[in-house]
Design brief:
The complex is a heterodimer of chains A (about 110) and B (about 120). With about 110 residues, chain A is an all-beta fold. Chain A is built from no helices and twelve strands. The radius of gyration of chain A is 13 Å and the shape is globular. Classes of the chains: A mainly beta (about 110), B mainly beta (about 120).
């Protein structure tokens, strides 16, 4: 069965600095990988996904993620963090089945 | 148009009671999913509907949980004989069916508290 791991519960960065939120996955076939963001009292919002092709995927709000098959990773990145990026971030994986498996989440705090 | 809506936003009930949680998906989305999110955890898959039928209910924790989608649009998650361990945020999501890597659009969730 597929699974993802988000090794960091919390990531703190200063505004303007680059940020990375880590995700590794385990799946038997070719993975479909997703990043979602959750703001307080709001539903999960889709940021980006990797299906196939270019390993660098660009998404909403200036975020991007790099698929690395050899390291089974799909880290979320942004070149310059904003205070408004502070939220809970979830990595998710889906194979050919119907269910999507989410990581436990990483809380990103961007300080002014 | 409107996004996924869920009602109620909060539900407090007593142990042993029956509850119903409603999800109204995005118009035209034939795929509908229910997830449960406990504190400090990511969403956990419960059940997937393709149209009116439950195509995959492998995530339902036990037979106290049941979901329906009689007309292929609105879905209701039903929990019988609620237990304190059922307390969580219940999330609903919808998507276009094919391809199956379409992103899912989530509602704001229903926070269920079982006293």
């Amino acid at each position: 069965a597929q699974s993802v791991a988000q090794p960091e519960d919390q990531v703190n960065v200063a505004e303007g600095n680059p940020l990375t939120v880590k995700c590794t996955y385990s799946v038997s076939g070719n993975p479909y990988l997703f990043w979602y963001v959750q703001y307080p009292n709001r539903g999960l919002q889709f940021l980006l996904k990797y299906i196939t092709g270019d390993n660098l995927v660009k998404g909403s709000y200036g975020f991007e993620a790099e698929f690395n098959k050899s390291q089974t990773s799909f880290h979320l990145k942004k070149p310059s963090a904003l205070v408004s990026d502070s939220a809970l971030y979830f990595c998710a994986v889906r194979d050919k089945g119907n269910d999507m498996r989410f990581g436990a989440g990483t809380r990103l705090t961007v300080k002014p | 148009g409107a996004g996924v809506s869920q009602t109620p936003s909060n539900k407090v009930t007593e142990k042993g009671k029956y509850v119903e949680l409603r999800c109204d998906p995005i118009s035209g989305h034939t795929a509908l999913y229910w997830y449960r999110q406990s504190l400090g955890q990511g969403p956990e898959f419960l059940i997937y509907f393709q149209g009116t039928g439950a195509a995959d209910d492998s995530g339902l924790p036990n037979d106290r949980f049941f979901a329906v989608r009689p007309e292929g649009s609105v879905s209701t998650l039903k929990i019988q004989r609620t237990e304190r361990g059922d307390s969580a945020v219940y999330l609903c999501a919808s998507s276009r069916s094919l391809p199956n890597y379409n992103e899912q659009f989530f509602g704001p969730g229903t926070r269920l508290t079982v006293l």
